[in-house]
Design brief:
Radius of gyration: 22 Å
Strand content: 15-25%
Bound molecules: guanosine-5'-diphosphate, 6-O-phosphoryl inosine monophosphate, magnesium ion
Number of strands: 19
Number of helices: 13
Oligomer: single chain
Structural class: alpha/beta
CATH superfamily of the largest domain: Adenylosuccinate Synthetase, subunit A, domain 3
Length: 429
């Protein structure tokens, strides 16, 4: 299959995030005219390795490492300007000058959002998601309350001052009501953010209009999702989710362009499971097995460095991702990490009391009680560079059986196989 077979391609997480979306986005980005983020913020952490050099990206799309595509941050993304500036400078120091546009309508994370995030997480206790403490829930909250601050406001001091007045007093009242002390100062924030605005001004524009006219004139667009299905605020394991929709369906509202057809929606699925943060996790591994898998897979958060919880592949979750995203295909990543395991359990259903269920329950108490029902498959040994060169049919039979078993359970083709973090360690089937 040719990489340039469509005009609109979307990369979407089908689990708990960290599936390898950055690597797969980078794989396709070289042939795109635009690479676009449409939701989330710097809670995301996408790792791309090019020629042995590792790049960790949080806000800027993973296409930035090519010179051609324009990187776009859509209005659905929430932006911490200091994190964005840091990322621009980090890339410049590595010799990459980002060709970047940022939506004038994207909401801005302010220091009180980060303090609120910490206070909220403490307040919510068992019901929290274990956030990345980047201010994500509070900034999306302020957007819905309609006193949020947008990128354009940083360029209009009078408007910014008025809005900050409202939002600052609202957030500080709550932070203090939660019993937290804070030494944040409104004037300091104002002055600092006006300076951020000056720095970012050349990047800020109405990207919806730019994207629409480029789409009309035949440009190809690659959308890079962040997080994954179980973190979606509507369809995920609520309330242990993030605060945005993570589905492909959010592209229109998160970028302001509408189109009749997305040609390819590629779900990225890790061959096992990892999760940072708090929630029940039916296939979670404990003890030595979890340590082996975590260390072998390098399962430590890109954003917070937290050790990721790990478990066996959960197809109940992936089945939901196929349906709700309308996935046209799946990229299965990190199969190399499973090399050496003699047996590989795959969860195809949950047992809740006496019932067997195949779809994610809405009921939190059912989800807490869900026990994985496994099919156990035979493992495989090392994957060699010759196998990668020769393609899918040269891979071990037991690995190919693993791939085929998944396809049979979720009714979706697996067209991309990733067996290492580097660009060339990718097999198109
Ligand atoms: P994302 O959030 O979905 O972009 O994923 P992250 O970048 O946070 O985490 C995925 C990690 O796995 C990164 O360190 C990648 O370099 C790495 N990775 C991606 N695909 C593969 C693969 O097929 N094999 C191995 N060994 N590592 C991979
Ligand atoms: P990428 O794009 C993994 C998790 C957090 C927490 C929950 C809510 O790298 O796949 P938030 O800070 O959003 O309020 O946290 O969501 N989380 C992620 N986990 N990968 C991510 O992004 C994540 N973004 C948020 O750990 O459980
Ligand atoms: Mg990540």
């Amino acid at each position: 299959m040719s990489k340039k077979s469509s005009k609109i391609t979307t990369i979407i997480g089908t689990q708990w995030g960290d599936e390898g979306k950055g690597k797969i986005t980078d794989f396709f980005a070289g042939e795109a005219d635009y690479v676009v983020r449409f939701h989330g913020g710097n809670n995301a952490g996408h790792t791309v390795i090019v020629d042995g050099d590792t790049y960790k990206l949080h806000l800027i799309p993973s296409g930035v490492l090519y010179s051609h595509p324009l990187s776009v941050i859509g209005n659905g993304v929430v932006i911490d300007p200091s994190a964005l500036i840091k990322e621009i400078k980090y890339l410049q120091e590595k010799g990459v000058d980002p060709n970047l546009k940022v939506s004038d309508r994207a909401h801005v994370i302010l220091p009180y959002h980060i303090e609120m995030d910490i206070a909220l997480t403490k307040h919510q206790g068992e019901l929290a998601a274990g956030s990345t403490k980047r201010g994500i829930a509070p900034v999306y909250g302020d957007k819905m309350y309609r006193h949020g601050i947008r990128m354009i406001d940083l360029l209009e001091p009078e408007v910014f001052k008025d809005k900050l007045e409202k939002a600052f007093s609202f957030n500080m009242t709550l932070i203090k009501a939660f019993g937290h002390t804070s030494d944040l100062n409104k004037n300091d924030i104002f002055n600092k953010y006006i300076e951020f605005g000056k720095f970012l001004k050349p990047y800020i524009s109405d990207v919806s209009v730019d994207l629409y006219s480029s789409y009309k004139s035949g440009s190809s667009i690659l959308f890079e999702g962040a997080q994954g299905i179980s973190l979606d605020v509507d369809h995920g394991v609520y309330p242990h989710t993030t605060s945005s929709n993570t589905l492909a369906g959010h592209i229109s509202s998160g970028t302001g362009i509408t189109f009749r057809k997305i040609d390819r929606v590629i779900g990225v699925t890790k061959a096992y499971l990892s999760r940072v943060g708090q929630s029940p996790l039916p296939t979670e591994l404990e003890g030595d097995e979890s340590i082996t898998l975590r260390d072998k897979g390098g399962e430590y958060g890109t954003t917070t460095g937290r050790p990721r919880r790990v478990g066996w592949l959960d197809l109940v979750q992936v089945r939901q991702a196929v349906r709700t995203n309308g996935l046209s295909e799946i990229a299965l990543t990190k199969l190399d990490i499973l090399s050496g395991f003699e047996e590989l359990p795959i969860c195809h259903s949950y047992k809740v009391g006496d019932k067997i269920i195949k779809e994610m329950p809405a009921s939190l108490s059912d989800f807490r009680k869900s026990k994985p029902v496994y099919e156990t498959l035979e493992g495989w040994g090392d994957i060699t560079s010759d196998m990668i060169k020769e393609g899918f049919d040269a891979l071990p039979l037991t690995l190919r059986n693993y791939v085929k078993y998944i396809e049979g359970q979720i009714d979706c083709k697996i067209t991309i196989i990733s067996v290492g973090p580097q660009r060339h360690e990718t097999i198109i089937r």
